[in-house]
Write a structure and sequence with these properties.
The chain has 16 helices and 20 strands. Strands 1, 2, 3, 4, 5 and 6 form a 6-stranded parallel beta sheet that branches. It has a 6-stranded antiparallel β-barrel with strand order 12-13-18-17-16-19. Strand 1, helix 1 and strand 2 form a beta-alpha-beta unit. The protein is elongated. It starts with 8 loop residues before the first strand and ends with a strand. The model has no long low-confidence stretch (mean pLDDT 94).
């Protein structure tokens, strides 16, 4: 399965060197004649090109894949020859960013490349004039509705590359939506995003709307090898838990459902998952199989695969956003008031991740407890009070996918660790006024996604790149 979080942003370094046709001084250049020859221009260009590529390799983030750098020459007729533009083909078609690195007068080649290929173009300063030329290029392109970037330094470049990677991850995301009936509006969260075709047009996100009973058929069709894998996962979950309040045989069916979900994702070439709870619960098909979906959401998110409860596409969008930005497992849940005077709310669902401190980090300590009084339906329980004072970011898309609500806060407590039912919660002290948050949330709906760390500035920058509005509360 292609996981969007694993994609790289392809960076094409381009160094357009101005080679004058003959040595001369004038309003645009000064110097000793020996330093103004075409040969001197070309030698400086080759040296600076090598230095640019070398420095770039040292500073590129892991989110980037460097395409073969291209050296171009143009002359003082100020026309970039078609033969030089052709040197960018075919690599330019794979590029997520064309990075210009010339030291002198690169504006015309940069905008020519943008017009010719329709690619985002950014300027990495290689000398004192880099600031000037970078903002010149960016302003030209942005004023014409094109993507132009000027990077302040290599740290700034790395941050933007990581955000371009997130956009690319969104474009390669395909939701598996387990449907019940003809409506995309689930019973439990009517503020869910209903215009999935709009998502496709705005962000490139695709979807597969599949009848929910395909998952139960997939579960029933698991072969002996799959059931052996389910046993191994079950054993590992039990052995690594701090406490287990269920029998192994009652844990196993929820693990088998997780494997069935993985198989359904692969069958439909999907890499994100959302399923309705109330509608399927009412049919009692999961009661017969002694399964709830909580563990599946946890294990998928820990693998870097966005997954959301109650067929809530808004939450799934926010989980995808936070997963790709933070590279951490994302919690989600209902919101309710804990303490008005202290600005504390709760986020409440039984779907914490074991990788909430990082997908590559060790598992967090956890317990296993049943969702039901009857002892079945696996939930992972994490005591958020272990992390008092840690900063978190909250997010949710609006029902048409054009805006994102964000807020920062710090963990102030936990609840429901030792209870059955959908009882687990994290208490969050908001940085700003809770009443303001409530009023703004009326345009977004009730589930919130939560990730450890402060990513609001990254989300604001992404909003500019991807075209969604960010509302901070």
């Amino acid at each position: 399965m292609l996981k969007p979080i694993d994609v790289k942003a392809n960076i094409l370094p381009v160094f357009p060197q101005l080679v004058h046709t003959e040595p001369y001084e004038g309003p645009c250049r000064v110097g000793e004649m020996g330093t103004l020859t075409p040969e001197a221009d070309r030698q400086r260009g080759q040296e600076q090109f090598g230095a640019f590529v070398s420095t770039l390799k040292e500073h590129l983030p892991s989110a980037a894949r460097l395409l073969e750098p291209v050296y171009l020459e143009w002359h003082d007729d100020f026309v970039l020859p078609k033969s030089e533009l052709a040197k960018l083909i075919p690599a330019v078609y794979d590029a997520d960013l064309v990075l210009i690195g010339a030291a002198g007068l690169p504006q015309y080649p940069a905008i020519t490349i943008a017009h010719e290929f329709g690619k985002p173009v950014g300027m990495m300063p290689t000398g004192p004039g880099g600031w000037m030329t970078g903002v010149d290029i960016a302003a030209y392109l942005r004023s014409r509705g094109m993507e132009g970037y000027a990077f302040f330094d290599y740290a700034d470049l790395s941050r933007y590359i990581s955000l371009l990677q997130v956009r690319k991850a969104f474009r390669q995301t395909r939701f598996f939506i387990a449907g019940e009936g003809n409506s995309l509006v689930p019973s439990g969260v009517v503020s869910s995003l209903w215009d999935v075709e709009g998502l496709k047009q705005r962000y490139g996100i695709d979807y597969a709307l599949v009848p929910a009973d395909e998952l139960t058929r997939q579960m029933d069709a698991l072969i002996e090898e799959d059931r052996a894998e389910a046993r191994r996962i079950t054993t590992r979950l039990i052995e690594n838990a701090e406490a287990v309040h269920m029998s192994e045989e009652d844990i196993l069916p929820s693990v088998e459902f997780y494997l069935a979900a993985r198989k359904a994702l692969e069958k439909h070439e999907a890499n994100a998952f959302v399923i309705p709870c109330f509608e399927i619960c009412a049919k009692q098909v999961m009661q017969k199989r002694r399964v709830t979906f909580c563990l599946t959401h946890t294990l998928l998110k820990d693998a870097g695969i966005p997954s959301a409860c109650e067929a809530d596409v808004n939450a799934l969008m926010a989980i995808s956003l936070l997963t790709y930005v933070a590279r951490k497992s994302v919690y989600m849940g209902n919101t309710y008031l804990v303490d008005r005077d202290r600005n504390i709310l709760a986020v409440h669902h039984d779907v914490p991740g074991l990788k909430m401190k990082g997908l590559d980090a060790p598992d967090l300590p956890y317990q296993i407890r049943s969702f039901t009084v009857g002892g079945w339906g696996v939930t992972v329980r994490y005591d958020f009070s272990r992390d008092l004072g840690e900063t978190v970011t909250l997010a949710r898309f609006n029902p048409v996918g054009t805006k994102v609500l964000v807020a920062r806060g710090e963990i102030a407590g936990s609840g429901g660790v030792d209870e059955v039912g959908c009882s687990l919660s994290v208490h969050i002290k908001l940085a700003n006024d809770i009443r303001d948050f409530f009023y703004k949330q009326r345009d977004f709906g009730h589930h919130l996604a939560m990730v450890y760390g402060d990513y609001i500035e990254d989300i604001k920058m992404l909003g500019e790149i991807m075209g969604f509005e960010v509302i901070e509360a």
